UniProtKB/TrEMBL annotation:
<dbReference type="GO" id="GO:0032259">
    <property type="term" value="P:methylation"/>
</dbReference>
<protein>
    <recommendedName>
        <fullName>Arsenite methyltransferase</fullName>
        <ecNumber>2.1.1.137</ecNumber>
    </recommendedName>
</protein>
<comment type="similarity">
    <text>Belongs to the methyltransferase superfamily. Arsenite methyltransferase family.</text>
</comment>
<feature type="domain" description="Methyltransferase">
    <location>
        <begin position="78"/>
        <end position="229"/>
    </location>
</feature>
<dbReference type="InterPro" id="IPR025714">
    <property type="entry name" value="Methyltranfer_dom"/>
</dbReference>
<dbReference type="GO" id="GO:0030791">
    <property type="term" value="F:arsenite methyltransferase activity"/>
</dbReference>
<keyword id="KW-0808">Transferase</keyword>
<keyword id="KW-0489">Methyltransferase</keyword>
<dbReference type="InterPro" id="IPR026669">
    <property type="entry name" value="Arsenite_MeTrfase-like"/>
</dbReference>
<dbReference type="Pfam" id="PF13847">
    <property type="entry name" value="Methyltransf_31"/>
</dbReference>
<keyword id="KW-0949">S-adenosyl-L-methionine</keyword>
<dbReference type="InterPro" id="IPR029063">
    <property type="entry name" value="SAM-dependent_MTases_sf"/>
</dbReference>
């Protein structure tokens, strides 16, 4: 049998073993999030207000069967097309449907029938709460082969996923598929579990650890390497928390590894370098996101206040100019002149030699320079 685009090809035997463990755990073993043995598959940080407001509209059964580890839902996605990989009970899809509004579209892909049944069962009730009909649908499929679920290349603005990629036996294929599905300037904004080292074969094949999102956790550096190989921008951390593994048997199997729930941003952007370089560029946030009026938090380290010109690296300038974020920012400068590695909080663009070479009292300059 040959596999062609649009057909649902059977998975490899080794992959099917992993799929069976995941289906069994999420379709039959777990009934609610209270059945989990670790904190990996539960959200452990408070989501932003625009997310909590949307959660209040989500039907109770959808919320009860939610097993995510973060809140991978960026602000300002009104009118965009969103894809959720491993959508499960559909909670994040429901939230995204509220955020994209009547003109946006949300597609959830999952392989577990029990979870898909829950997700599909409440769409009409959700529409009544919204007061309008969302463009929300759920498709059965494997996240490694989203094209087989009808996801066309270059058709998605934002891809999201919540503690699911770790469950895949082929994470490279997942990330590669997302990259192809995204439009130029699109983004993969997702939460998952990662490890501070490569795990043993025993840990990777332990049914409970796999089901609890621990056994399939990628070593953070291996994840970075995959992203770079595929062509994504450098992974940008939005949030990071330690995952608690307290069960004595599981502690012994993981052999001292530390696990983290991390929300990452991966952009399909243009001219990226392997380090943050300084070209003296400045960026200004226009304050145009309804849910982030005062400032925009690009990642855990970069916050851009509304109306203020802020020094940014060449990579950040490129993201703000070429990604889906570009209407909300203005960027001054280009890459004609290089000033070395970018140091947060400094900029050469606004520093000019003074005639009397009087040192500046504060700011980015010194040694006979003023800002």
């Amino acid at each position: 049998m040959s596999c062609t685009k649009g057909s649902c090809c059977p998975p490899k035997k080794a992959d099917e073993t992993t799929y069976d463990m995941v289906r069994e755990y999420y379709g039959k073993v777990l009934t609610t999030s209270g059945d989990l043995k670790t904190s990996a598959c539960t959200a452990c940080t408070i989501p932003p207000k625009y997310v909590t407001d949307a959660i209040a509209l989500v039907p109770s059964e959808v919320n009860e069967k939610f097993y995510g580890c973060g809140a991978p839902l960026p602000a300002g996605i009104d009118g965009l097309t969103v894809l959720d990989l491993g959508s499960g009970s559909g909670r994040d899809c429901y939230i995204a449907a509220k955020l994209v509004g009547p003109k946006g579209r949300v597609i959830g892909v999952d392989m577990t029938d029990e979870q898909l049944d829950v997700a599909r069962a409440h769409v009409n009730a959700f529409a009544e709460r919204l007061g309008w009909e969302p463009q929300l649908e759920f498709r059965k499929g494997y996240i490694e082969r989203i094209q087989e679920a009808g996801i066309e290349d270059g058709s998605i603005d934002i891809a999201i996923s919540n503690c699911v990629v770790n469950l895949s036996p082929d994470k490279h294929a997942v990330l590669q598929g997302v990259y192809h599905a995204l439009r130029s300037g699109g983004e993969f904004y997702f939460s998952d579990v990662y490890a501070d080292r490569r795990l043993s074969k025993e840990a990777r094949s332990h049914a409970v650890l796999v089901g609890e999102c621990i056994g399939g956790a990628l070593y953070t550096e291996d994840f970075r390497r995959i992203c770079e190989e595929i062509g994504f921008t450098k992974p940008r951390i939005v949030s990071q928390t330690v995952v608690d593994v307290e069960d004595p048997e599981l502690v012994q199997v993981v052999e001292g590894a530390t696990f983290y729930s991390i929300t990452y941003r991966l952009f399909k952007a243009g001219d990226q370098e392997d380090r943050e370089e300084n070209y003296g560029q400045m960026a200004t946030y226009r304050g145009t996101f309804a849910d982030e009026k005062d400032a925009y938090q690009l990642d855990k380290d970069i916050k851009l206040p509304t109306g203020q010109s802020v020094p940014v690296s060449g990579n950040v300038a490129d993201i703000l100019q070429t990604s889906w974020l570009h209407p909300h920012f203005s960027v001054e400068g280009n890459r004609d002149r290089h000033f070395g590695l970018f140091q947060p909080g400094t900029s050469t663009a606004t520093c000019k030699p003074t005639a009397d070479r009087t040192p500046a009292k504060s700011g980015c300059c010194g040694g006979g320079r003023t800002c």
